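Example record used in the benchmark description.
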Amino acid sequence: MRTLLAALVLCVQDDAKIAEWIRDLGDDAIEVRERAMVDLVRIGRRAEGALRQAMNGGGEVRGRAAQVLAEIARGEGARIFEPAPGRITLRKTDVPLREALEEMQKQAGCKLSHSFAPDDEKVTVVFENTPLFEAVDALCRSARNTSYSIDCRRDDVTVTISEGKFADAPRVFRDQYFVRLDGLSLTTLYDLQGGEASKTRLDFRWGWEKGTRPQQALLRIEELVDDLGNSYLADLLDPGARPVGFAYVMTQQPIEWPKVPPPGASKFAKIRGSLDLSFPVSLLVFPFDKPEESSGALRKEEGASVKLASCARDRSRLRAKIEVRPADLAGRLEMKAVDKEGRDYPGRYTRGDQGDGESMLMSVEFTLPATSEVASLRFTSPSGARERRIPFEFKDVKFR
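Model output (structure tokens):
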């Protein structure tokens, strides 16, 4: 009962603050209006009803309420691809490593696999709303002989704790992201005629928590100098990662150049750059319920459309033909069949033909159990672009 009363009190307080902020949208002072807009965007969906009522009025309040509603919608769309980071709150003093890991697993949004966690390995940790990757790093640092690796796949993330020397590699954590310099190598090859070929290589790795889905990851090096002041920026063979599609995004990149630092140099004094991520602004969804009965159905979203030309089932295969408009939407589509139990089966593209110049005709195929009954086909595509920058700066990276 107390919990219910507390929730009701909070709702009343929120409603009062929302009403106050909406009144402030019409204030003569620009700083008051801007503060009100920030507060309304922050509170999000809880303010939508009152904002829509404010749209029925006139004057400048109506226009500002519309701006706030648009910002709230953009924020909700962003969370589809970039949800809030997982955070760990944990206070343990001289406890077995296994116990700390088990407590962290309850709060983690991914799998914490530990092949090495002996009962006599004791740790002391104090985490207060600490990002997950940063907490794992601090935990392994505090143990005697423990290392970790992070495997980031498209729909899954696994953190593996194992036995071994803690890898104190140059790295940076930012919310649900990490960027790490995994390796550095200097090689010189000599032939029997007195020739030589040199190469320096830096191996970078990065990743993000489960649920985060960038459509592009680009590693940029902005400054690279050794302790003698030599700059290598102009020598880089591949200074940036290559952009890739929505379904597959690289999480590692070698940076190379065709020479090694001179004998007097012993370290890179500074390696500075950024991981530049691009996220969709929204997700376009084109659903077709009872697809075998929906030939000719058309779905539209934000100037794009998908038409289900035909759909037929042959035991474990469901084949469909769709017309996609505009044509470049075809390269971004994700396809899945959903059965009546809610299980998903990904589709694959088998053939494409140019339509009327603005559309693409696609043949797609879904493989699913012969006994399953398809409830719907769902075609989705990211739309728009929003940038996120993760800067890093590593100093005094020794190579000799």
